[in-house]
Amino acid sequence: MRLSHKTATLLVLIPLIVLAPIFFPSNFYYRVGSLIFINGLAVTGMVILIGYAGQISLGHAGFAGIGAYSCALMPVHWGIPPVAAAVLGAVISALLAWLVGRPILRLKGYYLAVATLGFGILVYMVLTNETWLTGGPDGMSVNDSGLRDMAEAVGIDLKNSQFWYWMCAIVLVIGVWLAMNLQDSPTGRALRAVHGSEVAARTVGVDVARYKLQAFVISAVYASVAGSMVALQNEFVTPDVAGYMHSIEWVTMTVLGGAGSVLGAIFGAAILTTLPQVLTAFAEYEQLLLGLIMMLVMIFMRDGLLPSIMRRIRGKDE
Amino acid sequence: MSELLQFLFSGLTVGAVYALVALGFTIIYNASDVVNFAQGEFVMLGGMLTVFAYAAGLPLILAAIVAIIVTAAVGVALNKLAIEPARGAPVVSLIIITIGASIFLRGVAQVLFGKQIHRFPSFSGDTPFRIGGATILPQSLWVIAGGLAVFYALYLFFTKTLTGKAVLATSNNRLAAQLVGINTNWVMTLSFALSAGIGALAGVLVTPITNTSYDVGIALALKGFAAAMLGGMGNPKGALVGGILLGIIEAMTAGYLSSQYKDAAAFVVILLVLFIMPQGLFGAKQTERV
């Protein structure tokens, strides 16, 4: 029997998430796990943008910033519960992505890269400089989402880090499931056609601009939700969540793991989230090693880590 | 009026540095279609190596020359060890490789030179000149003159010398260039050496004004990249104009509007320019071949 791509991905992902805690020696590992899932969610969005539609963005952390600060600001100013604020933040991100995306996505390659980079930096600067609203570079605290209390009320009593591990895992799995559905839908096929050749796609009647915009908006929502999760978990936000290094990190995770597949990208997220934790043992050599690993993987495994490893395994079978 | 002049001076100084970084981007992009995000690290290395060669007792001018040569060698190594082996890889992978290289170089600098801020003295003192009520540092003149000199030298190189024409031919069509007997690998090596050397020169010129530390490269690479895109990628004239324009826009915003938003202003202008002219100011209109 041949499993569909979607089922196979979920069959790999879910058991890994469920079984991993068996090997966790301390609560700190739950924390790293939830970080992996949050980054995983953002890069799942990046796969839709980079892997499916073939567009690049160096500014998606901007949307994460909007998601995060929605959770921080809306409860204080409008009395909206933090979780609802996350949803509203995603809506705002989608609207903004739609507005910005229309002119930006006419650009190609490096021009698109610098335009999205500019967008991300603008969001970051507003969050940093509008101190009266956002608390400036020092950040601001986020009201308790009450999710853990709710879980406790129904009998699930977990430590904070454990609770967020499972919370982020659930959101990630839903995100991945939606992305996989999208891949198999007519929209997904149209996006891949756009990726293959915009001219060819246009020739067979694909509305290229519309589908590129769709991919951009959807990936922005993923980034926004990821940002909200960071805010809700930490109960604190700083403008760093929107910093361009995060945007670059997400693109790197996606490409390093394998931009063509959701699982590959999440693998990339797992590696690049864990690596700095491992490398802290080498303290001052951390950056040096990180850069070296990025270069080596891209030189010797061009399609990304996971696809290259899979091919090697399959190659032995044949 | 004197205020405007003052802002113009500081804009020109910063702009000349951006222009040098953008020129570095342009040279490598033309030879290989790679946007080298480690360009900012070349600037950092130029400044850093000068600091340490100078501290080791070399005269300043000699220290600067050593720094430029060593950085050029680093550029060649980057090409040979990381870019050439990845020939034919997709653009995004090449972006990741150069980002990796920039993180790597930053990491090496951090280990070798430490995290503190370094500096060396100005070339010709710190007594500012007074022009029309505004002041300008002698070192600023060095930076601006350096930017213009490099641009003019590149212009001569690309239009008057056989080697320069070989580089242009390679950027136009790599295969055709190979067919007429141009050693395109050598052109690549030369381009990386040239680009790294120019970056290092920018670092040498500007360090007496801004000081340097292991992480100054990121911001410079972003601004230089933006300047190159503003002018139109691959066009040296675009890099020069884009860089200086970016510097002036920043200085004017910082002076008249808000110093906090000076980086934002630059990017707003870039977004506007790209919306109206998707190829940048001087970029050639490209038609996609099917």
Task: Write up what this structure looks like.
The complex is a heterodimer of chains A (318) and B (290). Chain A has a domain at 25-244. Chain A is 76% helix and 1% strand. Chain A has helices at residues 5-19, 27-52, 61-78, 82-104, 109-129, 131-134, 147-153, 160-184, 186-196, 198-203, 208-234, 244-257, 262-279, 286-300, 305-317; strands at 140-141, 236-237. Chain B has 290 residues and is mainly alpha-helical. A two-stranded antiparallel ribbon of chain B has the order 1-2. Chain B starts with a helix and ends in a 14-residue tail after the last helix. Chains A and B meet through helix 5, helix 10, helix 12 and helix 14 of A and helix 4, helix 9 and helix 11 of B. Chain A: One of its GO terms (cellular component) is plasma membrane.
Identify the CATH class of chain B. Answer: Mainly Alpha
- Terminus-to-terminus distance of chain B: 54 Å
Q: In which order are the strands of the major sheet of chain B placed?
A: 1-2
State the total count of DSSP E strands of chain B: 2
> Cα-atom Rg of chain B, whole angstroms?
19 Å
Give the domain tally of chain B. 1
Helix content of chain A: over 70%
- Poorly predicted tracts of residues of chain B: none
